[in-house]
Write a structure and sequence with these properties.
4-stranded antiparallel beta sheet; alpha+beta; single chain
């Protein structure tokens, strides 16, 4: 059931991406970085477990960059590594 809900949310946010790009941000983006643990733990807490596992296997941390708009937040998922910072990853398995 959790995976169905995640797929639904991804489809919903994917359809409003163009609309969000035209809106003006109401604050600076937030970078949210999770600590890197073992790949099997990604199933418990990561929003995109497959991306979390990919980041950990590359020696990076799973991260989100969250943009705030009047209509709600918009999240980009990727990895984080010092000193490069946030690295946007493709959201395809």
């Amino acid at each position: 059931m959790k995976r169905i809900w995640i797929i639904f949310l991804l489809c919903t946010f994917g359809s409003v991406t163009d609309h969000m790009a035209k809106e003006e941000e109401i604050s600076k983006p937030l970078l949210r970085v999770w600590p890197a643990f073992r790949p099997e733990e990604c199933e418990d807490w990561a929003i995109l477990p497959y991306l979390c596992k990919r980041c950990i296997l590359q020696g990076k941390q799973y991260a989100q960059k969250i943009f705030f708009y009047e209509s709600g937040p918009y999240r980009l998922h990727g990895c984080y590594l010092e000193p490069e910072g946030f690295i946007l990853e493709e959201e395809e398995k």
